[in-house]
């Protein structure tokens, strides 16, 4: 399961369901029932929407219950594992995406109209690392807030190494102000 979600084409390829009206109906039903969140891709408003599975129980089921665990000490061994740490991080990201209004309020921009986007650059030969931005808040006041969600047990600060990684040369979306 891709944490940033999948595009319609990727869902079609993974499921074998042709990218026709049937797939549209399925995705709309999943969105309306609260299982999937659609997040437009910044800079690609007509195509490239990301479809994210957001139903927490379904995600938990796929991650930890399927297939059934037969080891009686499974939960104790999982409590401090890398898989559990990754789960906490992804859960925190989903929680943030389900509370955009509160994030805007904490940023002091709750009264500013905004569009919400995600952005992903798939690795290629030119930029083999790829990149993603968890949340872009494209505000009507011509500011774009770039948000990276991190779950940690201690204070997190961007250091020189992280800053350098953010400037790797991966082609970021062209940030334009609304109306230009």
Helices and strands in order:
Layout: H1 8-15, H2 21-32, E1 36-39, E2 50-53, H3 56-65, H4 74-78, H5 82-97, H6 100-107, E3 114-121, E4 131-139, E5 144-147, H7 160-166
Antiparallel strand pairs: 1-2, 3-4, 4-5
Give an overview of the whole structure.
The chain is α+β, with helices and mostly antiparallel strands and 180 residues long. It has 2 domains: 90 residues, no CATH class; 59 residues, no CATH class. 37% of the residues lie in helices and 16% in strands. The protein has 7 helices and 5 strands. The strands form 2 sheets. A 3-stranded antiparallel beta sheet has the order 3-4-5, with no helix packed on it. It has a two-stranded antiparallel ribbon with strand order 1-2. It is globular, with a radius of gyration of 18 Å.
Give me a quick take on this structure.
This protein has 180 residues and is α+β, with helices and mostly antiparallel strands.
Strand content: 15-25%
Succession of helices and strands = HHEEHHHHEEEH
Measure the end-to-end span.
Answer: 36 Å
Total of domains: 2
- In terms of per-residue confidence, which ranges show pLDDT below 50 for 5 or more consecutive residues? 174-180
Dominant shape: globular
Biggest sheet descriptor: 3 strands, antiparallel
Please state how the strands of the largest beta sheet are arranged side by side. Answer: 3-4-5
What's the mean pLDDT score?
82
- Which structural class should the secondary elements be placed in? alpha+beta
Counted by DSSP, the helix tally is 7
Specify Rg, calculated over alpha carbons.
Answer: 18 Å
The counted number of beta strands is: 5
Work out the helicity level: 25-40%
